[in-house]
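Worked example 2:
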Amino acid sequence: MKKIILILILGCAFTAQAQYGNRNSRSQRQSQMGQTQQEAPKPNFNVERYIGIVIYDIKKAAKKSSIKLSSKEGKEFSKVLTKYNKDIKDITRINSFLLRSTKDMIENFQKSSRESGDFSNQKKVQKRMGENLKPIFETLKVEDLKLNSTMKELLSEKQYKKWIKYNRKIYKVFPKE
């Protein structure tokens, strides 16, 4: 008698578990199907990063280059970077319309090509973008050369190597002199 009751209880438990597990897997399948229907992300083109506009965080740059800001060398380092940041912000402000229009042009192309699947105008858009940004790029190149030569004079060889390493890490590559 006890064996029969035990078998009935186990049978009911297995039946209940099987039904609950089936409901759970069905709800998981439905939630997975809902997740696959996502929209493509909006195009986001960072023009400033593309042409190499970097505004330095003076404390972080000093730390990465092993320079103490309280020293005479550190104060000069801070002064140089402050002037550079001001000049770069001025260049960005003066060319803000051109930067914004180039960004809009690229994002519109990305959006339309993603929807239609037609990338035939890509070369034309890249060429136009290069023509638009070339004057800004040349101005930035001159500023970077000035900063590079100043840093080379100001810093020791070891600190200068760390400065270059930090710049590579933030995707800033100095042009060759």
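The helical segments are 2-36, 47-51, 58-64, 72-94, 96-116, 122-154, 157-169. The mean pLDDT is 82.
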